[in-house]
Specification:
Distance between the termini: 60 Å
Strand order of the largest sheet: 4-3-5-6-7
Structural class: alpha/beta
CATH architecture of the largest domain: 3-Layer(aba) Sandwich
Radius of gyration: 20 Å
Largest sheet: 5 strands, mixed
Bound molecules: zinc ion
Shape: elongated
Number of strands: 7
Order of helices and strands: HHHEEEHEHEHEHE
CATH topology of the largest domain: Dna Topoisomerase Vi A Subunit, Chain: A, domain 2
Number of domains: 2
CATH class of the largest domain: Alpha Beta
């Protein structure tokens, strides 16, 4: 059976969600049309609001609705410690561990020359600027241990060395190639405390 154009386009739109294939997209579309038009409209408005209103923090590149994200805007956070992570969901995971009082720098990816992702595409020019400005005592790398993560960590280490900033790396308890968002808070807190200089 062929779907009508509007239904077909909604099904296609749902498949842009991670883990949602054609079948689930179809199920979602029909559920909303059949039983929950109000929910569907709420979803549409929330999507538009977030897609248009959420930008990146000027300082750490995390999601923000103002110039600065809530962490950067908080004067009680320690400006001297900066934890470098790959994605905003990593920030969330570390915040939920409740152990960290420093700031973050969110790469939104890893270095991957093969895919044309160079240093400036993941904000490393901005990080370099901040390292040069002074005020950062320690960079804590929490970028994962995939091949790209390792390459990124290596690049950042060299950058920090040039600016004379100490670098450490969380290690213990974080699975190889693991994504931080799947690590529980206690393990993450332990990994942060047990970080090692590199
Ligand atoms: Zn920020």
């Amino acid at each position: 059976m062929k779907h009508s154009p509007l239904v077909q386009s909604l099904i296609e739109a749902f498949t842009c969600l991670p883990g949602v294939g054609q079948r689930s997209a179809q199920r979602m579309t029909y559920a909303l049309l059949e039983r929950n038009r109000e929910g569907g409209l709420y979803l549409a408005e929330s999507l538009r609001g977030a897609m248009e209103g959420v930008r990146q923090c000027r300082r750490c590149r995390n999601f923000a609705e103002n110039e600065l994200c809530p962490v950067c805007a908080d004067p009680r956070r320690d400006d001297g410690e900066v934890c470098v992570v790959s994605s905003p969901s990593d920030v969330l995971a570390i915040e939920q561990s409740g152990e960290y009082r420093g700031r973050y720098f969110v790469l939104m990816g890893h270095l991957s020359p093969i895919d044309g992702i160079g240093p400036s595409a993941i904000g490393l020019d901005l990080l370099e600027e901040q390292l040069r400005e002074g005020g950062i005592r320690e960079l804590i790398l929490a970028v994962g241990t995939t091949v790209e993560g390792e390459a990124t960590a290596h690049y950042i280490c060299e950058m920090a060395e040039e600016s004379g900033v100490r670098v450490s790396r969380i290690a213990q308890g974080v699975p190889m190639g693991g994504e931080l968002e799947f690590v529980d808070g206690a393990t993450l807190a332990h990994a942060l405390k047990g970080r090692r200089s590199v």
